[in-house]
Amino acid sequence: MTLQEIIDLTRRRLGNYELPCNWTDQELVDYCNYAIGQISRNAYLFEDAYTPAICNITTVADQIDYLLSTDIVELRNIRVTGESSAITQTGTGLNDLSICGSYTHDNTDTVYLINVTTASTTDVFKWSDDSGVTYTSSVSMTADWQELSHGVFIKFTAKTGHTATDTFTFTVSDNSNQLMTLTSVKEMYNVIPSWRMSTSDIPIKYLLDYRRGYISFYPPPDDVYLINMNVLRYPATDMTITSMSGQTPEIPAVWHMILVDGILYQAYNKTGIETYNERKADRHYGMFRLGINDINRSKIINVSNKQGMTPHEGNI
């Protein structure tokens, strides 16, 4: 269902689909976003290792702590996938290029060239991953992460203001896709009291500060590494009241009816003679929780069905 269809169905369930409305569209959409967030936290519905702004970190030499995206519900595993040289700019224009990614070109170095070809209301660039032998041309800057090749992304912070003919160059090397190990502050201070002042090297362990949303690496990185995280996350974007018929929740359609119960229990908790109904709020909250349990059961069944059978080591 689209967001509009979900809101319309909710209004029919509320018996409030004609003016005057006791609940505005904004209220119902806010309830919908909150319900989606609850499902994301409790059913771990969205697993992601691809979205650049959420799943990738580019280290800075000797910097230990990095802020995680607030869209992450849980971090499942983390790998050092590649090592990058410093970005070299040829030219004197705006220097706002950054890189991230999950490097996938095994045992091979890749030399990237990014050349600004047009400086206009939206600047344009071309890029090469073979030292300039061939180029992908006419790529407009978006001020967001843009994919090149082999899992590498770049981002120009600004869409305009660059200088035509300026070139940016960097080389990415394979780093064996090394899996890092989760540790704790207690363990680190017990084993290596001065761990935050250790000699820098390739990170092999990580720590999480759930209160402030940071991740810390040990040993401190000695270079620019492309780190990829497999995470459970919240939806990429919230629903809005603008063009509701053009929006569909990221949650699979088979679970959309659970969203309706998630909206209804909040709607019946709204203060007011025409809106508050404790009995109905409790009933729909119970149905909403049962729906989340149903999602979790379905995930367990799907995962178990993918497991290969092992020898029973018994007699037939």
Give the total of beta strands.
16
Q: What count of domains describes the coordinates? A: 2
Helix proportion range: 25-40%
**Relative strand content:** 25-35%
How many angstroms separate the termini?
A: 50 Å
Shape designation? globular
Number of helices: 6
Determine the mean pLDDT. Answer: 92
Q: What is Rg?
A: 25 Å
Structural class: alpha+beta
> Biggest β-sheet: count, sense, barrel?
9 strands, antiparallel
* Weakly predicted, low-confidence segments: none
Could you spell the SSE succession in H and E letters? HHEHEEEEEEEEEEEEHEEEHH
Description:
It is a single chain. With 316 residues, the chain is an alpha+beta fold. The protein has two domains: 3-45 and 237-303, no CATH class; 52-233, no CATH class. It is 26% helix and 29% strand. The protein has six helices and 16 strands. The protein has helices at residues 3-14, 25-43, 52-55, 185-191, 256-267, 278-305, and strands at residues 46-48, 56-58, 65-67, 72-84, 88-90, 97-101, 110-118, 124-128, 136-140, 146-147, 152-156, 167-179, 181-182, 205-209, 214-218, 224-233. The strands form three sheets. Strands 1, 2, 4, 5, 7, 8, 9, 12 and 16 form a nine-stranded antiparallel β-sheet that branches. The longest helix has 28 residues, at 278-305. The termini are far apart. 27% of the residues are buried. The model has no long low-confidence stretch (mean pLDDT 92). InterPro entries: SU10_adaptor. This is Putative structural protein.
